[in-house]
Structure formats: C-alpha cells, structure tokens
Amino acid sequence: MKKSADLVLILFVLLSGISVFLPVGVDADMSVQWWDKPTAFALLVISVAAALYQLISRETTTYAALLLTIGCIAGAFAPLILTRTVDASGYGAIGLWLFLVALGLLVWRSLALLSRAANGNHLLAFAVPALFGIWLLYLWQVVTIGFGIPSVLLPSPEQIGAAIENNTSTLFADFYQTVVKSVLSGFAFGCGAGFLVAILVDRVPFMQRGLLPLGSLVSAIPIVGIAPIMVMWFGFDWQSKAAVIVVMTFFPMLINTLAGLQATSHIEKDLMRSYAASYWQTLLFLRLPNAMPFIFNALKINSTLAMIGAIVAEFFGTPIVGMGFRISTEVGRMNVDIVWATIAVAAVVGSLFYGILALMERRITFWHASYRRAK
Fold first, then answer.
1. Residue 371: what pLDDT?
2. Burial label, 320 (beta-carbon count in 10 A; 0-12, 13-18, 19+)
3. What's phi and psi for 184, nearest 5 deg?
4. Contacts of 159 (CB under 8 A, 6+ apart)
5. According to the model, what pLDDT value does residue 370 have?
6. CATH number of the domain at 164-371, please?
C-alpha cells in the first residue's frame, strides 16, 4: 500500500519537474515559462515541497494529510493564475496541463490520507467528499477558462455563480413553484399512499397478484407520456406536476415497503405469536422496524425521481415560473448561463433533500448492521 502511495507522489514530483521546462502559455506571441510568473512558480514549489515531505516522512497522521492538502490547494492556484494572465490553450501551454495532470495525482493521495484519518472524525468525513466535489469544479473552471470555451457551449462555474447572483429573485420563485409546491406535495402524497397501500396489500395477499404487475407496467411508462395527460387532467399549475410525481413515487415505495415487511424471518414471527401478539402488534413492533431500511431506500430513490419528474413535467405546460419552464425558455434565448444556474440550484436542492433523508435514516435505523461500527 505504501509503495503504491509513494509511486503516486514520485510521479507527481517527476511530472511537475518536467512541466517546469515546458511552456505554460503564450503572451503577446511570446512563449511563457513558469519562472516568468513568479507567484505561480512559487505555488508550484510549495506543492512539490509538500509532496517531498510526505515522501520522506511517510507519515499517515491527520497532520500529514492536512499538510498535503495545503500543498494541493497551493498548487491549484497556479493554473488559475496562469489561465487568467496568458493564452493557455493547446500545445502552447503543455507545461501547464502536464502539471494539472500531476496535481490530480497529488489530490488523489491527499484524499486517500484524509479518508484514512477520517475514521471517527465527522468533520474530516464530511471534508473528503466536499473536497472531491470542489476538485471537479476546479477542473471545470480551469479547462473552460484555459481553452477559452465559449459560454454558450459550456459556461464556467464562475459564470454560473454570477448568473445565480444576478437572478436570485427569479431562481427563488422557480424554486418555490417547483420544489415547495410540486415536489414536496407530490413526494408526500405519493410516498404516503405507497406506504399505506403496501400495508393493505400485506394484509390482503391476493392483491399482490393484481397490483404488483400493474406497478411494473406503470413504472415502465416514460415521464413524457404521463406529463401531458396530467396537464390535461389537472391543469397547468403545480397540481399536474404533483400528480406526475405521485405516479412516479407510488410504486417504488409500495415495492420497497412490501420487500421490507417480508424480510422478517419466521423465527421472529413465531416469537411474537408465542407472546400472543396480534397482527397489528407484530406489524408495529417487529415488521415495520425491520422494514425501515427498505422504506428509507425508497424515500431516497423517490427524492431524486420527484425532482426529475417535476422539472420534466413543466416542459409540457406551466405558469411562467418553475425550473423546467426556466430551462426550456432560456435555452431558446441562448441564455445558457441561466440554464446552468437553474440546473445547479436543482442539483443542490436534490442533494440536500437526499442528504436529509440519509441523516434521518442514520438516526432512526442506527441499530441496523450497515451502521454498526467495529468496536
């Protein structure tokens, strides 16, 4: 394990050293070297020094992980400086892009060390996925700026952030229409109905033969087939979008709840019968607790389905507000930065929704085997 980790750091140092002798951009038709930009060159040296310290010390402590992370952050600013001051597209900046590849290796090793140090540390456990996401955004920013990709094709994260800042009121109105009105209401009704029907089907077994095949049939119907029908039935406002979400979330909850209720073993059921427990007592105190991981699995699946369903349904008719309406309208106007801003808001909201459900699952089903920690 240590040999592979050392190899990663050696490759980083080697590639960084090679990049120093290659051009990092073009300025006024003149090739630019690393030493022509002292600040960027100093940041490169700091990142290489952090890697060399890790190679020599071979420590795997939290301190070593943080020190290597600081080296990653220092190295990451060098390409940002260069892409803003020189033309960094093509082979004229081969040194810059070689260093960026090397920096990816350093980030890989840094995140590996942080992951190892995160055992028992909730802050570091949160930092690892957060830093990985920031790294992906960073690559997006450097590539779009460095190669001069037009914003109409792919705006940079900086441009998307500016679009969010400049259209806050519009995006909030879209968020309220799509998420608060459509998603939350459709999610609550669809999941609630699926749960209650699952209890009924479990109590009346012959319903499984007719209802579950129907569920498979409805689940196979694409959203673009359901949405126009719901708009005709319930109108153009949020009610039709909520109806689409109900159809999409009902059967995942039904199937997962039934699977969870059936996961209780015969020995556990026999034990409850020996205590003269009724069907409802067995359901409440044994089978539903056992089904909780399945139920939360359905809730997490439905949290993403609900967002997708609401946005797609708004393409087929909505008031002049909503995330789906904003995406379809602004694409026609070539305002791609606002489209990406809306997508970013939807992604953040969907991730938060999923994260809240995952946190609730951890709190409620802490006894489950998947959450037990080795003593």
1. 63
2. exposed
3. -65, -45
4. 151, 337, 340
5. 61
6. 1.10.3720.10
Q: What are the structure tokens assigned to 364, written together? A: 């409620």
In the chain, at which residue ranges do the beta strands (DSSP E only) sit?
A: 25-27, 30-32
Residues 6+ apart with CB under 8 A from 205: none
What is the distance, to the nearest Å, from the Cα of residue 163 to the centroid of all Cα atoms in its chain? Answer: 21
**DSSP character string of 133-151:** HHHHHHHHHHHHHHTT--T
Q: What are 31's strand-pairing partners?
A: 26
- Name residue, tokens 């968020």: 175
Query: In the chain, where are the structural domains located?
Result: 2-149, 164-371
Distance CA 269, CA 282 (A): 7
CA distance 14 to 48: 10
Q: Can you tell me the distance from the alpha carbon of 16 to that of 96, in angstroms, rounded to the nearest whole number?
A: 9
Q: DSSP code of 25?
A: E
Q: Is the pTM of this model over 0.90?
A: no
List all residues 6 or more positions away from 317 whose beta carbon is below 8 Å from its beta carbon: 228, 231, 236, 240
pLDDT per residue as tens digits for the range 239-266: 888 888 998 898 889 889 988 888 777 8
Each residue's pLDDT tens digit, 290-328: 888 899 999 999 998 899 888 888 888 777 888 888 988
